[in-house]
Structure formats: C-alpha cells, structure tokens
Amino acid sequence: MKALRLTLLALACSAPLLAAAQSWVWVDETGRKVFSDTAPPPSVTANRIIRQPGQRRSVNEAQAQSTPVAAATAAAPAASAASAPRLTGKDAALEEKKKQAQAAEAEKKKADEAGVAQLKEENCKRARAGKNDLSSGMRVARTNAKGEPVVMDDAAKKAEIKVLDEVIARDCKPA
C-alpha cells in the first residue's frame, strides 16, 4: 500500500513536468512571451521560439529567458531583427482601398462640377437671348395661366430684364 502511494505521488509530481515538456513558448511581435500547447503561427520566426515539445533547456538558458525583454533579445539576434517585418499599424490593403475611394470621390466631384458648369453656361445663353428679345423694343407676348396670350407692358419688361440681369451676373463668366 505504501508503494502504491509513493508511485501515485511521483506521478502527480511529474505530471506538470510532462505537460510543460509538451508546450510551446515563443515571443510575439510585441515582445511578450506566449505559452501554448499548439505550435505558433507561421508569422513567428524560428529564432523567436523559446521552447517546443521535445526540446530540453539548461537552467542557465531558462533563467536568461525568464523575462520577455531578455527572451526577445536572446531569441532574436540583431541580424534577424532587421529582417523581421516592421509593424507600422497600417494595413496595406485598407490603405489602398482608402486611396481608391478618395480617387473615386474626387472624380465624382469633378464630374458634378463639370455638370454644374455646363448648366450655368446654358442658363447664361438663355438669359442673354431673353434679355436681347426684351430690350429690342418689339412687343412681347406671354401666355397666362389660362393659356391666353398677354402682351407685356414696359414695367413687366423691366422687371423681367432685372431678373435676367441677376441670372447673367450669377451664371455667366466674366468676358
């Protein structure tokens, strides 16, 4: 019975050691240690892996790598640190989509401005033609709400010319 207890005690004490032997330890991009029972992602280079299953370490190595900064320094020599991907905080695909969206927005705005300029030019031509007709001295007739022709008197012509002058001032480019 005593032998059985000693055996169970020995197994209980060695279980954490067996579990630790089957775990992975690596340093992530931010310099923190990551402990896992699965392999690190492919983005983690081999020089940042501190421990993997089946690997034995010496006590000095374990003490030297007990802090994240020391682990990162020991695991990544200066030459490989230069080749490690730089974290800029920007996603290249997202930046490209933003640029495309800005370019599309600028193109749409330019097309809208061109449409507005064309409408102003047409308004300008019509306003000038209307002003010439009203200023010619000829009698001008308009159609009222009932569809009947009504001849404009001088006061109505002046009021209409005033409105056309405002349209010309607003929509016509200075010559």
From TrEMBL:
Keyword Hydrolase: no
InterPro entries: DUF4124
Signal peptide: 1-19
Annotated stretches, region: Disordered: 94-116
Residue ranges annotated for the DUF4124 domain, each copy included: 10-75
Keywords (A to Z) from UniProt: Signal
Protein name according to UniProt: DUF4124 domain-containing protein
